[in-house]
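Quick one:
INPUT:
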């Protein structure tokens, strides 16, 4: 099964103490994704998680994706804003 992970994509944790929490993918390597939420997991220290332990969504925040791919300055508040947009201000 070949699942594509994209920078700026919203994913949910399927295991661990952060189970059920939403994150945004900031980097991808062969076996892992690096996740942030702007609150507990900040951009300075993203969570390294195996790909099999996250549930992907089809939503990719285009602004976050562009900033990550262009190596532009990105803040934790941008991450929180993107997650808030995904949830439609429910959080």
């Amino acid at each position: 099964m070949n699942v594509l992970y994209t920078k700026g994509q919203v994913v949910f944790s399927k295991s661990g103490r952060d189970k059920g929490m939403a994150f945004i993918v900031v980097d991808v390597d062969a076996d892992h994704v690096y996740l942030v939420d702007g609150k507990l997991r900040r951009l300075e220290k993203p969570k390294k998680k195996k790909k099999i332990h996250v549930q992907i969504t089809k939503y990719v925040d285009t602004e976050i994706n562009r900033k990550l791919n262009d190596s532009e300055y990105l803040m934790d508040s941008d991450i929180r804003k993107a997650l808030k947009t995904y949830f439609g201000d429910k959080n």
